[in-house]
Design a protein that fits this description.
The chain is built from 12 helices and 20 strands. It is α/β, with parallel strands linked by helices and 422 residues long. It has 2 domains: 252 residues, 3-Layer(aba) Sandwich (Carbamate kinase); 147 residues, VC0802-like. The strands form 5 sheets. An 8-stranded mixed β-sheet has the order 3-6-2-1-9-11-12-10, with helices on both faces. It has a 4-stranded antiparallel β-sheet with strand order 13-18-20-19, with helices on both faces. The two termini are 37 Å apart. The structure holds adenosine-5'-diphosphate, aspartic acid (ASP) and magnesium ion. Magnesium ion (MG) binds next to loops.
Length: 422
């Protein structure tokens, strides 16, 4: 009997009515002869609500002890929706049981709020499947070696689902969400965005890492590592649509080498509002500058993304880089305390009102002039580029966040993504 993993996001689980719909859909798949494992997210808004409560009590705390409690707290959202889904399935006449991460167990490292899955024991789940039950595995959470509850980072239920599918060698992992697939860009920002029927694993990985929140990047990494067949599709179709039609809908992530997303040079546009820029001004332009600035940043476990060093003038230069917005204040503080005095630099300035916009496409490997089309398009819109970063299949620019929508829409048109695929 084929084994299928379904994952339902927060909006799909957003009300008792929607949970009932999910249960009906899952029951349809089970009755059609599939073993079913279902991974639900917390009901929409619940994780934000819980984390906001913690913030109210301790506005600017960060420590391992605090993060441990955040995970205790946030994990309850998924636990509730898992039990509700099992109840709804039972009401549909299906035998069903839900398990929290620790009951499976899903083992992770101890990086609270962004833990990584290390292993999944599939025995318990498999025994229930063989006994004819639909098994609900709670998303977003796991347990570390010391028995502490961990969570996998925002959007982490995607990763739970793909990891469970990999561990159980499932025939397919279906990610049900509030859009009907992966689009050329976020349809909320560019209404002209189009659904892709397939997207290559490499492009999906790049888009997720550059900010497309439709899939958490680690879920794509898992899918690539274990070759998990994976599809993104809508949970808002009628639950009783023909199962064969449903199984072919949405966007399939493909693994074939050289398979291009619908033969476009640029296949998608991603953006990220979560970064902030930091500039160290008036740095003496001597060897070792990058190391002396970024070494302490790395030691503080702060991830750096785009980096730029200006030409020097009178032996001095400016050095800028981006970090996650959550790390912005901490990085400035660290540089002021530890780096500025030792370097003899003049000033550290931060800018949180930036965003990163990226074009992605395997076709960029074999085409020249793609980046220059991007720069021309932005200049025609009067958008100043503050930083640039490129790799084989992407070009990213850092711009003022007020131009985000304008930039995404203009690039979407410039790279012919508005037109239906031939
Ligand atoms: P879920 O709760 O189901 O996990 P998410 O909100 O995490 O849903 O992801 C779905 C959302 O991702 C969509 O509503 C859409 O706004 C956004 N999104 C961003 N980039 C894309 C893209 N390229 N294609 C489709 N959706 C995208
Ligand atoms: N509930 C978690 C979040 O909001 C995980 C998820 O939805 O995937 O980030
Ligand atoms: Mg999500």
């Amino acid at each position: 009997m084929p084994l299928i993993v379904h994952k339902y996001g927060g909006t799909s689980m957003g009300s008792p009515e929607r949970i009932r719909n999910v249960a009906k859909r899952v029951a349809k798949w089970a009755r059609a002869g599939h073993q079913m494992v279902v991974v639900p997210s917390a009901m929409s808004g619940e994780t934000n609500r819980l984390l906001a409560l913690a913030k109210e009590l301790a506005p600017s705390r960060t420590s391992p002890a605090y993060n441990r409690e955040l995970d205790m707290l946030a994990a309850t959202g998924e636990q509730a929706s898992s039990a509700l889904l099992a109840i709804a399935l039972q009401a549909e006449g299906m035998e069903s049981v839900s398990y929290a991460g620790w009951q499976v167990p899903i083992r992770t490292d101890s990086s609270y709020t962004k833990a990584r899955i290390e292993s999944i024991d599939d025995q318990r789940v498999r025994a229930d499947l063989n006994a004819g039950k639909v098994v609900i595995v709670t998303g977003f959470q796991g347990i570390d070696e010391q028995g502490h509850i961990t969570t996998l980072g925002r959007g982490g239920s995607d990763t739970s689902a793909v990891a469970v599918a990999a561990a159980m060698k499932a025939d397919e992992c279906l990610i049900y969400t509030d859009v009907d697939g992966v689009y050329t860009t976020d349809p909320r920002v560019a209404p002209a965005a189009r659904r892709l029927t397939t997207v290559s694993f490499e492009e999906m990985l790049e888009m997720a890492s550059l900010g497309s929140k439709v899939l958490q990047i680690r879920s794509v990494e898992f899918a690539g590592k274990y070759k998990v067949p994976m599809r993104v599709l809508s949970s808002f179709t009628p639950w009783d649509i023909d199962i064969h039609e449903e199984a072919k809908s949405g966007t399939l992530i493909t693994f074939e080498e050289d398979e291009k997303m619908e033969q476009a040079v640029v296949s998608g546009i991603a953006f990220n509002r979560d970064e902030a820029k930091i500039s160290v001004l008036g740095v003496p332009d001597t060897p070792g500058i990058a190391y002396r600035i970024l070494g302490p940043v790395a030691d503080a476990n702060i991830e750096v993304d785009v980096i730029i060093q200006n030409l020097s003038k009178d032996g001095k230069t400016d050095f800028s880089f981006t970090v996650h917005r959550n790390d912005h204040a901490r990085t400035i503080e660290l540089l002021k305390d530890k780096v500025l005095p030792a370097l003899g630099a003049q000033e550290v300035v931060g800018d949180a009102k930036i965003c990163k916009v990226s074009i992605v496409g395997i076709g960029m490997r074999s085409h020249v002039g793609v980046a220059s089309t991007m720069f021309r398009t932005l200049s025609e819109e009067g958008i100043n580029i503050q930083m640039i970063s490129t790799s084989e299949i992407k070009t990213s620019v850092v711009i003022d966040e007020k131009y985000l929508e304008l930039a995404v829409r203009a690039l979407h048109t410039a790279f012919d993504l508005d037109k239906p695929a031939e």
